[in-house]
Fold this sequence. Notes:
It contains 6 helices and 5 strands. The protein is an alpha+beta fold.
Amino acid sequence: MTDAAHRRRRQTIEVVQPIGRRPPRLRAYQTERVGPAPQASSVTVSSIMRSNRSTGTKPELALSRALHKKIGSRGLPGSPEFVYPRFRLAVFVHGDFWHRCPICKLSLPKTHAAFWRRKFKRNVERDRLVTKELQELGWNVIVIWEHEIKASPRECAQRIRAAIARATRARGNDLGGDVHGTAPLHYEVERR
């Protein structure tokens, strides 16, 4: 085996910055580092790539409107778009292209194909590791794909509400519900 092949097979360990007082976590990636992005093939491509946002994308905003909830993370691994700490629920909105939707099966860009192959492999692996980290911390994870939101933001919002309802029933009295955990009670607060 050549040195280059040996380096590619070696597992990469990256330190994930701690949030609050938690010790840093290590993510063991199986894939090699992506490296710097290649030079854009044209000014137009450069402009398009620069305009891609990491947060506040159209699918995220559509789901935000359907949920009546602001986009925001609470310092959890992977920075989920929507967090419900009371229910230990983290919701990710994945773009079909960047996170490689298994249903859409979008093709790779033709220029710099090796870079994009590494990039997408690493993205998918990171998504898997982040999901595993959150589950180990006791969080439920929901992944909603861009094409699902385009088809029906309301159905996506309903999936999230159903997960919250299941969490509410599972916790029962912890949330102020009745004995069977079916209906949370609403308490009036007296103001003096």
